[in-house]
Write a structure and sequence with these properties.
- Two copies of one chain form a homodimer.
- By secondary structure, the first copy, chain A, is of the alpha/beta class.
- The first copy, chain A, folds into two domains: 137 residues, Peroxisomal Thiolase, Chain A, domain 1 (3-Layer(aba) Sandwich), CATH 3.40.47; 238 residues, Peroxisomal Thiolase, Chain A, domain 1 (3-Layer(aba) Sandwich).
- Chain A has a nine-stranded mixed beta sheet with strand order 3-2-4-7-1-8-11-10-9, with helices on both faces.
- In chain A, α7 crosses α11.
- The longest helix of chain A has 17 residues.
- Chain A is globular and about 55 Å long.
- The interface between A and B is large, with 63 and 63 residues.
C-alpha cells in the first residue's frame, strides 16, 4: 500500500432527530451541513467533494440523485457529489469512501453526511415497506418479511442458542432511553422501565415496541481534512481505522443468523488498521435498530464473547459508567434512526466525546471511540475507529 | 498528492442490451460480471471489493442495497460492496471511486459494474416516472417535467442560440443506428434515414422518437487492477484520467442551459490528469440519451467549439472514419441505455477498441479513448480517459 495520509474530522453538525413535518431531506441536510461548516470555521469554498448517504428518498420523497442536489443548496454546485446507498449503512459507507479519497491525496477537504426524511403523512406501513428495499425482495419481502420480522427471527435464534432473555433485550432499551435524556438532539426524552419494555405491545415477537427504534427524520454531517490541514485545527479527531464487510442480503443465506459476520469483518479490518484491540476502545456507538442488534454488535466487536452480550448488558458493563459504554447518545433506539444519516450521526457523537465536549453525556477521559453501522439485517457493515 | 499507482482494466463483460423479460438486474449483472472475470482469466477469490451502479431499482424492482446482493450471487459475499446512485451516471461515479481506491493502494483487484432492469409489464409511463427521480422533484417533476421535456427545452435553447437544426439532431441518430449495426450487443439493429427521424412521432418537440434513447435492460462490468498486477496481463488498458463535476439539478438553476458545465469540469480534470488534449483522443463514447446531448457533449469535451457540434455531425466528423469518432458502439441511442450500466458499458466499448478487438466497429489505430457519462439533465458528469 502507498503511504496513506492522516485524515481528521474537524467539523460536525447534526439536526434534532424526530418528526420534522415541514422539512424534507434537503432542508434537514442543509442545516446539518451548515452547522458542520460553522463548527469547523472553514470557508465552504474550500470543500472539494460531497459524499452523501441516503437510503429511501427514491420512494418516500420521489427524489434520487441527491449528491448534486445537496451540494447545490450549500453553494457548492460544481464539486463532485456522490450518493451512496447501502440501506441503513449508507452514510457509514460514504464516510469510508471519503476516507479513501482523502487518505490517498485526491482531496484535502471533504463534506460527508447523510439525511433521511421518513415521517410522512402516510405512516408506518409505507415506511416499513420502503425500508424493506434493504432486504431481499425475492426471498424475503415477497414472502412477507420486513425488518421487524427479520430481527425477531435473529432474536429467537440468539435466545435459543445462548439463553439471551427478553429482560436483557429490555435492558438495552432502558439504558438507551436513559442515555438519550442527556442528548438534546435525541428523538425521545423519556425514561422507561424494564416493565414498560416487557409489557409493551408486540411488534414481531419476541420484539416489542421498545425493542424497535423509531421512525425519525434527521441529518448529520462532518468535515474531513487531510494531513495538509490537520494540525491547523484545535482538536482534530483522527480516523485511525476503517473497515467494511458484507454478507448474504437474505437471512436464509447466512451460516449462523446469531452473528453479523459483515460487522465482524469490518471490525477486524478497522482494528488492524488502527493497531488497537477491543480493550482499547473507550466508547462505542453501535447500530441498535433493534435491541437484539446491540447485543450482537457488542459480541461481534469483541467487547464480549460470542453469546455473552446479553449478560454484558445485564451486568451493567455497557452503561455510561461501565467497562465499555455503548450508545451514550441514546443509540438508534432513543436518539432516533433517520437511516441515511445514522452512520455519520454516530461519528458526530464520537467526535463530541473525544473532544470532551459531550456535556452530561461525556464519557470521562475518552480517547478512542468506535462507530458500528449496519445495513439491512447485516448485508453491509462499516466500522470506524477515531482517536483524539 | 501522494504517488498514485497505475490502474488498469483487464477484464470486460457486457450483456446484450434490450428486453430481457425473464431477467432482473441480478441475473443481468451476474452474466456481465462472470464474463468480465472470465475475460480477465482471474480467480474471482482475488476480487477485494465491488463498486456497483444502479439508478432506479428501488422503484422498478423494489430492491435497493444491491451492493452485497450482487456480490453474494457472484460467490463474493464477504467483500465490501457499495451501491452508487447518481442517476444515469451511477456506474461512471462507481468507476471513479474504484479508481481512487485502487490508485491509493487500498485494493489491488476490484469489480466495477452496473445494471438496470427497466423493461417491465407496466410500460413506458412507469419508467419515465422512475427516471424522473434523477431530476428535481420539487421544481421539475411536480411541475410536470420529465426528461424528454427537459432535454427538449435544452434543444430549443441550443437551436435558438447556435442555429442547430432538427436535421443535425436526426444525423446523430442516423449515425448511431448505423454504428450499432456492427455491435452484436446493441438494442437496435436497424438502420434509419434522416427522413425516418424527421418524420417520427414527436415525443417532446423538437425531439421526436429517434431523438430519444430506448428503454433497455442490461448490465456491464470491468475488472480493475493496480500496478501490482498490471503487467501480468496481456493488454491491460490504463485509466490515465478521471474527472467528475456537478451542477444544479434543475435546469432553472443553470447559468446557460445550452451547456453541461458538470461535463466540462469533469473533462478539464480528466484531461489535466491524463496530460492529453481533445486532439489526442482517438474515439469517444458520449452520453447521447437524447440526440441534443451528443451535440452538447462533443462541444463540452472540446472536440468542437461551443455551438458548433451540430455542424460537426453534419460534416461527418463524428462518423467512425471521421476526425473524432463518437459512439461507434451505437451510443445510448442505438446500443441502448440501461441507465445504471451505461457508464461502465461505455468503458467496455473503449477497452475493446483499445485492445484492437472491436471487429467491424474497430477504429483503426485507436490508442486513447474517452468515456463521458451524464446523470439527469447534467447535475452529474464523469469523464474517464483510457490508453492502451
Amino acid at each position: 500500500m502507498t503511504q496513506l495520509r492522516k485524515v481528521g474530522i474537524v467539523g460536525i453538525g447534526i439536526t434534532k432527530f424526530g418528526k420534522h413535518l415541514e422539512k424534507g431531506s434537503r432542508e434537514l441536510f442543509y442545516e446539518a451541513a451548515f452547522k458542520a461548516i460553522e463548527d469547523a470555521s472553514i470557508d465552504p469554498k474550500g470543500i472539494e467533494a460531497l459524499y452523501f448517504g441516503n437510503a429511501v428518498g427514491s420512494v418516500l420523497e420521489h427524489q434520487a440523485h441527491m449528491g448534486p442536489l445537496m451540494a447545490e443548496g450549500l453553494g457548492l454546485r460544481y464539486i463532485p457529489a456522490i450518493r451512496f446507498e447501502n440501506a441503513c449503512a449508507s452514510s457509514g459507507v460514504a464516510l469510508r469512501d471519503a476516507y479513501f479519497a482523502i487518505a490517498s491525496g485526491f482531496y484535502d477537504t471533504v463534506l460527508v453526511g447523510g439525511a433521511e426524511k421518513m415521517v410522512t403523512e402516510k405512516g408506518t406501513l409505507e415506511v416499513t415497506d420502503a425500508l424493506a428495499l434493504g432486504a431481499d425482495n425475492l426471498f424475503e419481502y415477497n414472502a412477507g418479511l420486513t425488518f421487524p420480522g427479520l430481527y425477531a427471527t435473529i432474536a429467537r435464534a440468539h435466545m435459543k442458542k445462548y439463553g439471551t432473555t427478553e429482560e436483557q433485550l429490555a435492558m438495552v432499551s432502558v439504558k438507551n432511553h436513559k442515555n438519550a435524556m442527556d442528548n438534546p438532539n435525541a428523538h425521545f426524552h423519556k425514561e422507561i422501565t424494564i416493565e414498560d419494555a416487557l409489557n409493551a405491545r408486540p411488534i414481531a415477537e419476541p420484539l416489542k415496541l421498545f425493542d424497535c427504534c423509531p421512525i425519525s427524520d434527521g441529518a448529520a454531517a462532518v468535515i474531513m481534512v487531510s494531513e495538509k490541514y490537520f494540525n491547523k485545527f484545535e482538536t482534530p479527531i483522527e480516523i485511525i481505522g476503517s473497515g467494511q464487510g458484507s454478507d448474504s442480503i437474505s437471512l436464509q443465506g447466512r451460516k449462523d443468523i446469531t452473528r453479523i459476520v459483515s460487522a465482524e469483518i469490518a471490525a477486524r479490518t478497522a482494528y488492524k488498521m488502527a493497531g488497537v484491540t477491543p480493550e482499547d476502545i473507550d466508547l462505542a456507538e453501535v447500530h441498535d435498530c433493534f435491541t437484539i442488534a446491540e447485543i450482537i454488535a457488542t459480541e461481534g466487536l469483541g467487547f464480549f464473547k460470542i453469546g455473552e452480550g446479553g449478560k454484558g448488558v445485564e451486568e451493567g458493563e455497557t452503561q455510561k459508567d461501565g467497562r465499555i459504554p455503548i450508545n451514550v447518545s441514546g443509540g438508534l433506539k432513543a436518539k432516533g434512526h433517520p437511516v441515511g444519516a445514522t452512520g455519520v450521526a454516530q461519528v458526530v457523537e464520537l467526535v463530541e466525546q473525544l473532544r470532551g465536549e459531550a456535556g452530561k453525556r461525556q464519557v470521562s477521559g475518552a480517547e478512542i471511540g468506535l462507530a458500528h453501522n449496519v445495513g439491512g439485517s447485516g448485508a453491509t457493515a462499516t466500522v470506524h475507529i477515531l482517536r483524539r
